[in-house]
Amino acid sequence: MLQVRDGRLQVLLWQRAQAPDLHLWSLPGGRLATDEDVATSIRRQLAEKVDVRQLSHVEQLAVFSAPARVPGARLIATAFLGLVPADVDPVIPADTRWCAVDDLPETAFDHEEIVLAARERLSAKLSYTNLGFALAPAEFTVSELRGIYSAALGYQVAATNLQRVLSRRGVLEPTGRTMPAGPSGGRPPALFRFTSRDLQVTDPFAVFRPPN
Amino acid sequence: MLQVRDGRLQVLLWQRAQAPDLHLWSLPGGRLATDEDVATSIRRQLAEKVDVRQLSHVEQLAVFSAPARVPGARLIATAFLGLVPADVDPVIPADTRWCAVDDLPETAFDHEEIVLAARERLSAKLSYTNLGFALAPAEFTVSELRGIYSAALGYQVAATNLQRVLSRRGVLEPTGRTMPAGPSGGRPPALFRFTSRDLQVTDPFAVFRPPN
DNA sequence: ACAAAAGTGTTAAGGATACACCCATGA
DNA sequence: TCATGGGTGTATCCTTAACACTTTTGT
After folding, report:
1. Are residues B143 and B111 both part of a single domain?
2. What is the tally of structural domains in chain A?
3. Is A189 a member of any domain?
4. Could you tell me the pLDDT band of residue A68, with boundaries at 50, 70 and 90?
5. Which one of A32, A41, A65 makes the best mutation probe of the B interface by having the most chain B beta carbons within 10 Å?
6. In a mutagenesis test of the A interface, which of B76, B208, B209 is the best target, namely the one with the most A β-carbons within 10 Å?
7. What is the gyration radius of the CA atoms in chain B, in angstroms?
8. Which of A15, A207, A210, B57 could form a disulfide with B134 if both were Cys (CB 3.0 to 4.6 A apart)?
9. Is the separation of the CB atoms in A11 and A51 below 8 Å?
């Protein structure tokens, strides 16, 4: 479960209270019940940590199945990427913590690998889909959105181009309202929103496009 | 397992000899052993159908886990995309057949959905990676490569642009040799090869590139 | 010579980046 | 009116698509 907090991309980790890997940090998750599919299961697992309505997007990442990935009985994990908008601050249990993805604590099992795969997927999809909606509040200024994209991608993006690219693709639209200017003056920023809050591919083919 | 055959993208299907879904067509696969990961397992399963050395690429697709996706005991499938170069014609068992992906027979369970997901993944990766190497022979003319890309993508691509895009990206290189001209004359085509036969992303970010 | 197929040159269009400039507000 | 941050206009660059043209062969 990823969220941009304090200008950094962070992941919700849970400190293990049992062996193996006692006290190491692990991803939330759990066993699959017999009457649910993996997507239902992950939502149920996460519901134990946060309010599920705050989850703006969930998608399958990959299967991790190395026979010795966890000690003891064979355990196969289907990893998911979950996203939470930057403006919510979920109540989380005492044994969990938000950790910056680029400065992870020592993780249990292969969970570091999973987190890095999640970050990579997120970066890629921010570029060719409207996935930003899942990290952004319902309404936001271009500056705020710039901060969110910069944190998720790991490098600075230019506000002017961000707005233009997203507007051209029709994923961003002005609400017509503005925020008050900051304490040191300046033009009041306009508020924007995403036109859709469902995942859509906006830049499907870089090359080898079908002919008209 | 996908291959371009006779100018069409085809998938190797196996006709079930048992209920449920008797006589319907299904994807090759089988159960995961306790001492292997899913990638190893799929190679083992496919080895029962063809010579594994002919598999030029294998990658994870997605997990299919709907509780009722198969009748009877709960069964969760990790689907894979496997590719075979167009110039090999593997010996296949009598109960299997190559079927055109855009004209599938009635499939068992949710296997049609899996095949369509595989085709989509293949199309996308042909555009932004060097994955063509997995469908093409070791050496080929641009015309042949054009046929392969056209079949896999489902629409005609122009030979001239195909060569230019792949050359610019450095994924294609001339061998220096040529093929004899066809029966009706014409300039003898040059032979090309892929510079690498490992998957590489050649067009990583459409937008929001990191600054220089 | 002519037809056919391969390959190259050139132009045009689309989309992204960079940067200068203009706008609106608080002090 | 000045500083500050927001937003727009415009130029440039890069990549690909389209198509005309040249090259090289067989008949």
Report:
1. no
2. 2
3. yes
4. very high
5. A65
6. B208
7. 19
8. B57
9. no
